[in-house]
Amino acid sequence: MKKCLLIENPNSGKQNNNQYIDRIIEKLEEGFDEVIHKRTEKEDDAKKFVINACENKYDSIFVVGGDGTFNEAVNGISMMEYRPKLGLLPGGTNNTYMQLIGGSNELDKAIEQVSFEKTKKVDIGKCNDKYFSYYVCFGKLIDATTSTSSEEKEKLGSFAYVKNVLKTIPNDESVNIEIKSDFKTFKTKASLLYVMTINKIGNLEFSKENSDINDGLLIVFIMTEEGLLSKIDAAKDMLFGKLDENDNIESFTCKKLSIKELDGKEVELDMDGDINGKLPCDIEILEKHIEIYLPNTSIQ
């Protein structure tokens, strides 16, 4: 008997996910013999639900929530030996991973796009004892990407990021770090560092290099120049997909790396949009670690 766990975060996004639950359950019952529905009430509930589903050998898990709920699910499933297939439905303010896999950002349409036919095994990053689905980073410029609302993106496109970048740059700081990887080892000043499983966040593409969420590589971007004009220039290239062409950006790919701050400063890490850890850190790629359901994008 095929069992599916449906995890709903009723407090994410517009807090109206419960209006769609009956439709979602009806849709999931087309592919599963039993659908168990659980609602989160506090932090880490989604992670606990996922671990329980792994232990009880559920066939699949679907998550209705935003980036934070999906990240909890990823952290729960990634640590387990048996890992059910994972599906995502956009119930949050930002649904970044849904954009990466080409699905609709509107829950109503995303329900129609649910398909049980096509899946993909995707890479997951591990940073110390935590997991991330698409990036870990530090630096004030990160706020320009994570604080840009869906409404701003819809109205202004890439220029919504430009506005927030210009607000963020005056508060930017550099730290001395040491990078050790299976590609190279070096020391540098860095005001921004991204370690990514793919070269974009949502619809913001950092470079035109071919990259996929299951190519088994981490992509590293480090802003090494401290000057204001250099930072503006790098921010521009970030917005227009040319970050790897910028002379003030160190970029490379690897499978493992460690990052250490050299002056005793506290440097917090952002993982998939949430502050989750500090330097020093050890990061590695877990190749094709989770199998996810892909939306049927022929349904618009």
The CATH class of the largest domain? Mainly Beta
**How many domains?**
2
What's the architecture of the largest domain in CATH terms?
Sandwich
Helix-strand pattern, N to C? EHEHEHEHHEEEHHHEEEEEEHEEEEE
* Beta-strand segment tally: 18
Low-confidence parts = none
Helix/strand/pairing class, anyone? alpha+beta
Order of strands across the main sheet:
6-5-18-15-8-9
The main sheet comes to: 6 strands, antiparallel
Strand content: 25-35%
Q: Kindly report the CATH topology of the largest domain.
A: Tumour Suppressor Smad4
Short description:
The protein has 300 residues and is α+β, with helices and mostly antiparallel strands. The chain has 2 domains: 3-116, Rossmann fold, CATH 3.40.50.10330; 132-287, Tumour Suppressor Smad4 (Sandwich), CATH 2.60.200. It has helices spanning 21-28, 45-55, 67-78, 96-100, 107-113, 142-146, 150-156, 159-168, 228-239, and strands spanning 3-8, 34-39, 60-65, 85-90, 119-127, 130-132, 135-138, 175-181, 185-190, 192-196, 200-201, 204-205, 218-223, 249-254, 256-261, 268-271, 274-278, 281-293.
Structural features, described:
Helix content is 26%, strand content 34%. It is elongated and about 55 Å long. Helix 2 (45-55) runs parallel beside helix 3. By secondary structure, the chain is an alpha+beta fold. The longest helix has 12 residues, at 67-78.
Key attributes of the depicted protein:
Rossmann fold; 6-stranded antiparallel beta sheet; ATP binding; elongated; alpha+beta; 300 residues; 2 domains; Tumour Suppressor Smad4; 18 strands; single chain; ATP-dependent diacylglycerol kinase activity; lipid metabolism
